[in-house]
């Protein structure tokens, strides 16, 4: 595969952009520079076209450059751009849609990115409870801010210890966040009992998708709900990835458990910047957008017309359910197909996923928490992904990452992916 132009452009980028990319996770060992994306395809500046399962880390749920979303955005450009005070009908419609579809959402506020939404959930939980500590689970990611950026894909020697994600994080922020193994209700309860009256919120990714796909056990989630009710803790479901991808009501509608607060971004707007924090009326009214609300919330771009228009068009496209039906069916085909090939070739694999998301782990055994994934064969995992990329099928070449199917993928795409996967897996034996 020729990547000369990608190399040249990336070199140019590194002269003015640190590392040549605008987000740390975008820098890969091979430089990629893009010039075109449509449907399920993306093309780099050297003319290499890929079938895309990365989906920009998940927002692309309808397909790249979806014409209805683009048309809605173009129409929004003919209305008010930004006025900075008051409200527009479009912002109301977006909140109404979230309230209509998300079981726990009684009110909603819009932001531009997931990190802003999870940050506001932290502040809200602390503001309403008067407590400082948070609980998060080993292996989850909730954005780039100080309070939750820790213990994501930790190396084995950092398990059970604090593993901050960045230099410059406040020591207080790190100290005040308690890390617990996922799906471990007893450990969660113990953490609460060890800090009586001090836990403001429990944060969980509705499905920890930042480590592929580790499904929450039903009794664990129901137990969290009970613990939060008993101890006056705010239960936050971070549905930044799961929201609108796994259903209009998010993964909470699959679980049938209502958090107090939820956060959404990514798939809600098919690639345009839009994020939401939503939840119980009595909590949401504590935001300072409401009279008397003491939890300050601001943001020049909140409810931006472009993101709001994209979100409304994306939700409208998802509303009749046919896209979920189709992409979930394709997801089932992909997971079963990968497992079948691996089984036939004698390669250990847990073909994980849910709905339109799939993650082949190169290991055997159970996958209930991040710690289980230390058994994943990283070299094989990355080797598989690189082999797929070299053959024109883009799966993020990093270990334990999720892949996404969009409405633009077809059965023929799945056939081709599985045929290619077999060729690549044969090279890994
Ligand atoms: N929460 C989760 C579960 C995420 O996966 C992400 C981003 N990967 C975020 C929050 C942060 O969202 P953003 O990158 O839009 O700030």
Automatic annotation (TrEMBL):
<dbReference type="InterPro" id="IPR015421">
    <property type="entry name" value="PyrdxlP-dep_Trfase_major"/>
</dbReference>
<dbReference type="GO" id="GO:0008483">
    <property type="term" value="F:transaminase activity"/>
</dbReference>
<keyword id="KW-0032">Aminotransferase</keyword>
<keyword id="KW-0808">Transferase</keyword>
<comment type="similarity">
    <text>Belongs to the class-III pyridoxal-phosphate-dependent aminotransferase family.</text>
</comment>
<keyword id="KW-0663">Pyridoxal phosphate</keyword>
<dbReference type="InterPro" id="IPR005814">
    <property type="entry name" value="Aminotrans_3"/>
</dbReference>
<protein>
    <submittedName>
        <fullName>Aminotransferase class III</fullName>
    </submittedName>
</protein>
<dbReference type="GO" id="GO:0030170">
    <property type="term" value="F:pyridoxal phosphate binding"/>
</dbReference>
<dbReference type="InterPro" id="IPR049704">
    <property type="entry name" value="Aminotrans_3_PPA_site"/>
</dbReference>
<dbReference type="InterPro" id="IPR015422">
    <property type="entry name" value="PyrdxlP-dep_Trfase_small"/>
</dbReference>
<dbReference type="Pfam" id="PF00202">
    <property type="entry name" value="Aminotran_3"/>
</dbReference>
<dbReference type="InterPro" id="IPR015424">
    <property type="entry name" value="PyrdxlP-dep_Trfase"/>
</dbReference>
């Amino acid at each position: 595969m020729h990547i000369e132009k990608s190399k040249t452009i990336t070199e140019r980028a590194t002269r003015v952009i640190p590392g040549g990319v605008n987000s740390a996770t975008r820098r890969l060992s091979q430089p990629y520079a893009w010039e075109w994306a449509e449907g399920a395809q993306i093309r780099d500046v050297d003319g290499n076209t890929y079938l895309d399962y990365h989906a920009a880390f998940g927002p692309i749920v309808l397909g790249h450059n979806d014409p209805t979303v683009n048309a809605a955005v173009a129409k929004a450009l003919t209305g008010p751009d930004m006025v900075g005070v008051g409200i527009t009908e479009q912002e109301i419609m977006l909140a109404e849609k979230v309230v209509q579809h998300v079981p726990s959402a009684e009110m909603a506020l819009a932001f531009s990115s997931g990190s802003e939404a999870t940050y506001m959930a932290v502040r809200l939980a602390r503001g309403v409870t008067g407590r400082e500590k948070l609980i998060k689970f080993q292996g989850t990611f909730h954005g780039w801010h100080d309070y939750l950026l820790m213990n994501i894909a930790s190396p084995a020697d950092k398990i059970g210890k604090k593993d901050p994600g960045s230099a410059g994080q406040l020591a207080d922020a790190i100290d005040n966040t308690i890390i617990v193994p996922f799906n471990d209700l007893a450990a969660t309860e113990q953490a609460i009992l060890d800090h009586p009256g001090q836990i403001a919120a429990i944060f969980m990714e509705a499905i920890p998708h930042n480590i592929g796909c580790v499904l929450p056990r039903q009794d664990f989630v129901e137990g969290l709900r009970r613990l939060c009710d008993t101890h006056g803790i705010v239960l936050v479901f971070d549905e930044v990835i799961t929201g609108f991808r796994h259903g209009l009501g998010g993964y909470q509608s699959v679980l049938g458990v209502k958090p107090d607060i939820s956060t959404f971004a990514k798939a809600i707007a098919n690639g345009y910047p839009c994020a939401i924090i939503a939840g119980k009326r009595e909590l949401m009214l504590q935001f300072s957008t409401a009279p008397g609300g003491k939890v300050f919330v601001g943001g020049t771009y909140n409810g931006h017309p472009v993101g709001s228009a994209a979100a409304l068009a994306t939700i409208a496209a998802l509303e009749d359910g046919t896209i979920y039906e189709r992409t979930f069916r394709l997801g089932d085909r992909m997971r079963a197909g990968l497992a079948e090939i691996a089984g036939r070739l004698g390669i250990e694999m847990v073909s994980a996923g849910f709905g339109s998301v799939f993650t082949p782990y190169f290991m055997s055994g159970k996958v209930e928490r991040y710690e289980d994934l230390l058994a994943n064969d990283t070299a094989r995992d990355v080797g598989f992904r690189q082999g797929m990329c070299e053959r024109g099928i883009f799966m993020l070449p990093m270990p334990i990452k999720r892949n996404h199917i969009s409405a633009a993928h077809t059965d023929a795409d799945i056939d081709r992916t599985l045929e290619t996967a077999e060729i690549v897996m044969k090279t890994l034996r």
